[in-house]
Structure formats: C-alpha cells, structure tokens
C-alpha cells in the first residue's frame, strides 16, 4: 500500500511539473505577438506558421534531434546554440532551455527574434518546409 502512495505522489508531481505549459490557438498567438510584443504582421504570420509546424502551438514541446541536440518551447529553440540545456553550449540567448517550456512566452519571443535577426526564418526547418513561399496573409486573415 505504501508503494502505491509513492507512485501516486510521483505521478501527481510529474503532472504538476508539466502543467505550466500552454497550447495556444493560431489566432490567440497571432494576437499576442501583435498586441503584447508589437511585432509587425509580416513577422507575426511567419512566427505563427513556424509555431504551428514546430510545436503545434505548445509551449511545453520538446524534441530530440538526430545530432543529439534538443529543441524547446513554442518556437523549438535549439540547445546547441541558443539556450542552456543539459550540455555545455554557446547559449546566445543567455537563458535556460527549461524556461522556454512555460506559458510565459516573453523569453521565447526575445530569443526567437534574436535568432531571426541573425539567421532569418531559414534557421527553422519547419518554416523552410511549410511556410516559405506560402500565402501567409490568408493564413492569419481570420485572426484580426
């Protein structure tokens, strides 16, 4: 019986630890990027498309890449260059990767904008595969 109590506590703790993430809708993210972070519509439509295909708008999303690096958060920011994960990295955004997994996307947005300024949207595979050369105006037109 005591064993089941510990298992229950462990399961509840795991669920509480993952409950701080948020899954945005397409239009909710578009409005937040526009109104809170004052992004231009050009950037908004590209970041929203990117988020859909990288994380399905899930701030708690993680992904392990074939090279051993990991991607974190709604914009799938990589720990090889941009954030500090489990391995020693360059950490250009000067943030812990774990901080990209909660519902507060301020640090995600700041880091993603830094990546965009240095490399453009081509830094993200999902953007190159799904968003580049697409009619993104129509993609978010119903959001505003």
Q: Tags for this entry?
A:
disulfide bond; 144 residues; EC 3.2.1.17; 3 strands; hydrolase; 3-stranded antiparallel beta sheet; disordered N terminus; Glyco_hydro_22; Lysozyme; Glyco_hydro_22_lys
Layout of helices and strands:
Layout: H1 2-18, H2 26-35, H3 41-55, E1 62-64, E2 70-72, E3 77-78, H4 106-119, H5 125-130, H6 136-140
Antiparallel strand pairs: 1-2, 2-3
Catalytic activity: Hydrolysis of (1->4)-beta-linkages between N-acetylmuramic acid and N-acetyl-D-glucosamine residues in a peptidoglycan and between N-acetyl-D-glucosamine residues in chitodextrins
GO biological process, one term: defense response to bacterium
Family: Belongs to the glycosyl hydrolase 22 family.
Strand content: 5-15%
Q: Counting H and I runs of at least 4 residues, what is the number of helices?
A: 6
Find the count of extended strands (DSSP E, 2+ residues).
3
From the coordinates shown, what is the CATH architecture? Answer: Orthogonal Bundle
Instruction: Give the distance, in angstroms, between the N- and C-terminal Cα atoms.
Output: 55 Å
Total separate domains: 1
Largest sheet: 3 strands, antiparallel
Strand order of the largest sheet: 1-2-3
Report the principal-axis shape.
Answer: globular
Give the low-confidence spans: 2-18
Q: Portion of residues in helices?
A: 40-55%
On the 0 to 100 scale, the average pLDDT is 89
The arrangement of helices and strands along the chain is HHHEEEHHH
> What is the fold named in CATH at topology level?
Lysozyme
**Alpha-carbon Rg, integer:** 17 Å
**Structural class label:** mainly alpha
CATH class: Mainly Alpha
């Amino acid at each position: 019986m005591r064993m089941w109590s510990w298992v229950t506590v462990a399961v509840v703790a795991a669920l509480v630890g993952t409950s701080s993430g948020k899954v945005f809708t397409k239009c909710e993210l578009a409005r937040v990027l526009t109104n809170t972070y004052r992004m231009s519509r050009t950037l908004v439509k590209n970041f929203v498309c990117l988020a859909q295909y990288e994380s399905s708008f899930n701030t708690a999303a993680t992904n392990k890449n074939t090279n051993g690096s990991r991607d974190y958060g709604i914009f799938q920011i990589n720990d090889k260059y941009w954030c500090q994960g489990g391995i020693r990295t360059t950490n250009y955004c000067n943030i812990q990767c774990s901080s990209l997994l909660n519902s507060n996307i301020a640090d995600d947005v700041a880091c993603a904008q830094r990546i965009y300024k240095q490399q453009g949207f081509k830094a993200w595979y999902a953007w190159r595969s799904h968003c580049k050369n697409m009619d993104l105006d129509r993609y978010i037109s119903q959001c505003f």
